[in-house]
Amino acid sequence: MPDPRPLRTALLGCGRIARGRHLPMLVRSERFHVLAVVDPDQRSRAAAEKLAPGASGHADPAALYADDPSAEGAVEAVVIATPSHLHGENARAAIAAGRHVYLEKPVGTDLDDARATVAAWDAANADRGEKLVGRIGFNYRFHPMHRAARAAIESGRLGRLVAVRSVYTTPATELPGWKTARASGGGALLDLAIHHVDNLRFLTGREVTSVRGRLLSRASEHDTATLDLLFGEGEDAVPGQITVAMNAVDEDRTEVIGDRGAAVLDRVADGVARFRGAKRAGLRRARARAALASLRPQRIPGVAPKPEPSTSASLHAFAAAVRGEGAGEPDLRDGLAALEVVLAAEAGALALARGGTPDG
Fold first, then answer.
1. Edge-to-edge strand list for the sheet holding 224-231
2. How confident is the model over 19-38, as a mean pLDDT?
3. Which residues belong to any copy of the Gfo/Idh/MocA-like oxidoreductase N-terminal domain (predicted)?
4. How many domains does the chain fold into?
5. From residue 311, how far is each of 23, 25, 150, 192, 307 by CA, in Å?
6. What's residue 352's pLDDT?
């Protein structure tokens, strides 16, 4: 029987995004009981405490790990939403203390850090009778439109996959400072592209077998990037392209093109998967729908959009996995796989900028 108890949870990292997204979802959900909020910044911590009545505030998570996780009132799991360069050390400390981990992407800012986290998770599970869940926050997999698209691909509705492409851009004015510097895990590759790399892995059901990247620094360091990718090998390989930028209007759109149909997945416009067949009539209908959509009222800057469902669904799936109700994917290994791709793209782009070749 599934365990109905709420998951006793601590939120590590209480910045603007964590307070605006993760914490309200955790507090509202019957799946979670928020016991503690952790942030070294007193103002951020105090703001988080106001959002989570009854939760204790801490500057450091070490005190939360003093008790056995199975003890009544002890923290069982952590949701880590700190700046990216702190992800690895926080995840490894929680794993060493026997806590389940939901880690926001990326799993690390370099491969050594990321591999150390995955190795720590593997070692902890080898030593324990029960499995520690190590979830990476690739919430796109849980968006209903992406799940609908994957189901359509698996059913053969789109036919043989021919290409995939995506665009993900955000306004520069909405970025916290650490996201604008590569050293702290910022930049368009680690913050934006990594989501779409994993999502295209999820949609195509294929691993990335080659990647080339280009980087630009416009408003901040490495805030614009393109990736040319190949998913899979041989005759079943699917070419793909990802464009990301942290200095533009909001855009988050993916297209999957097959020889019998196509899917357009627009997270900003309406979050609904749009499918069309290969016949010209289907194309005309799709173009007519696009024209009508362009007449709809547009989002006004500063006005919050309607709630985005994928983060909440991802968190709920994490809690369910801890309680034995489902798989733990996407897990920390998926985080490592996506990180390997974006870091390879970064290395190639930097080599190209120095006058070398994209392959170094």
1. 208-216, 224-231, 238-245, 161-169, 251-258, 261-266, 273-277
2. 97
3. 8-122
4. 2
5. 11, 8, 18, 15, 10
6. 83
Token output for 121? 């998770």
Alpha carbon distance 19, 25 (integer Å): 9
Sheet of strand 100-103, all strands in order from the earlier edge strand to the far edge: 56-58, 32-38, 7-12, 77-80, 100-103, 134-136
The Cα–Cα gap between 81 and 64 comes to 16
CA distances from 341 to 18, 230, 296 (A): 26, 11, 37
Task: Identify whether 43 is part of a domain.
Answer: yes
Same domain, 206 and 80: no
How many whole angstroms separate alpha carbon 291 and alpha carbon 26?
38
Burial group, residue 42, by CB count within 10 angstroms (0-12, 13-18, 19+): exposed
Give, for 225, the enclosing helix (H) or strand (E): strand 224-231
Q: Phi and psi dihedrals of 260, rounded to 5?
A: -125, -5
Question: At 50, which CATH number?
Answer: 3.40.50.720
Mean pLDDT of the chain: 90
Are 263 and 256 in contact by the 8 Å Cβ rule? The answer is yes
- Which H or E element spans position 275? strand 273-277
For the four alpha carbons of 18, 19, 24 and 26, in that order, the dihedral sign comes to positive
Q: pTM of the full predicted structure?
A: 0.90
- Segment 234-288, tens digit of pLDDT: 999 999 999 999 999 999 999 999 999 999 999 998 888 899 987 654 555 555 5
For residue range 1-14, list pLDDT tens digits in order: 667 799 999 999 99
